[in-house]
């Protein structure tokens, strides 16, 4: 099943469970807060551990791909040459930024707007996203970097086929030619 659909189903299920939790009881609310904080500590700790493992492995295998173009730009994507280590670190960094943003939003919703249900829902969603994270699957769960986990990672679309960077030789050669002609000008 598609990850986007799984997230939607988990979110809807968590909302139904959250409706039955008595958030008016201060003791229950403190347990939910503690659960949310514990989930975020697990998530951040796991991402930092993945970064540590990537740096420790120091895989210097060259990775070439043509980045996906911006939908708002008429320019085709540019050629990217990096190492597996740097690519995995950048992907893990994106995951960390997403976790930080989620914590900031949750802080705003809970502290300023006094919403309590999202604490429970976001704790579950964060743990599910941690399990779905491709660097976590490769470096902690020990899955091989093949299929959906082949670098560069393709972003799953809600409507079917995954979209992402192109790695075929013809596209890379075309992008290298474009880079070569730009340097000559």
UniProtKB/TrEMBL annotation:
<dbReference type="Pfam" id="PF10032">
    <property type="entry name" value="Pho88"/>
</dbReference>
<keyword id="KW-0472">Membrane</keyword>
<keyword id="KW-0812">Transmembrane</keyword>
<protein>
    <recommendedName>
        <fullName>Inorganic phosphate transporter</fullName>
    </recommendedName>
</protein>
<dbReference type="GO" id="GO:0045047">
    <property type="term" value="P:protein targeting to ER"/>
</dbReference>
<keyword id="KW-1133">Transmembrane helix</keyword>
<dbReference type="GO" id="GO:0005783">
    <property type="term" value="C:endoplasmic reticulum"/>
</dbReference>
<dbReference type="GO" id="GO:0005739">
    <property type="term" value="C:mitochondrion"/>
</dbReference>
<feature type="transmembrane region" description="Helical">
    <location>
        <begin position="95"/>
        <end position="113"/>
    </location>
</feature>
<dbReference type="InterPro" id="IPR012098">
    <property type="entry name" value="SND3_fun"/>
</dbReference>
<feature type="transmembrane region" description="Helical">
    <location>
        <begin position="30"/>
        <end position="50"/>
    </location>
</feature>
């Amino acid at each position: 099943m598609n990850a986007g659909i799984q997230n939607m189903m988990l979110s809807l299920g968590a909302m139904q469970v959250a409706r039955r939790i008595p958030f008016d009881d201060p003791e229950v609310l403190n347990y939910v807060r503690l659960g949310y904080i514990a989930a975020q500590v697990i998530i951040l700790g796991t991402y930092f551990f993945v970064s540590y493992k990537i740096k420790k492995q120091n895989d210097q295998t060259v990775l070439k791909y043509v980045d996906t173009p911006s939908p708002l730009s008429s320019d085709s994507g540019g050629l990217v040459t990096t190492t597996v280590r740097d690519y995995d670190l950048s992907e893990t960094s994106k995951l960390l930024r997403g976790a930080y943003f989620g914590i900031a939003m949750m802080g705003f919703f809970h502290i300023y707007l006094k919403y309590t249900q999202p604490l429970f829902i976001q704790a579950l969603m964060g743990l599910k996203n941690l399990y779905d994270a491709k660097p976590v699957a490769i470096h902690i769960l020990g899955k091989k970097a093949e299929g959906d986990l082949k670098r560069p990672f393709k972003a799953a679309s809600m409507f079917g086929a995954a979209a992402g960077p192109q790695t075929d030789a013809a596209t890379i050669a075309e992008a290298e030619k474009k880079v070569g002609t730009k340097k000559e000008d």
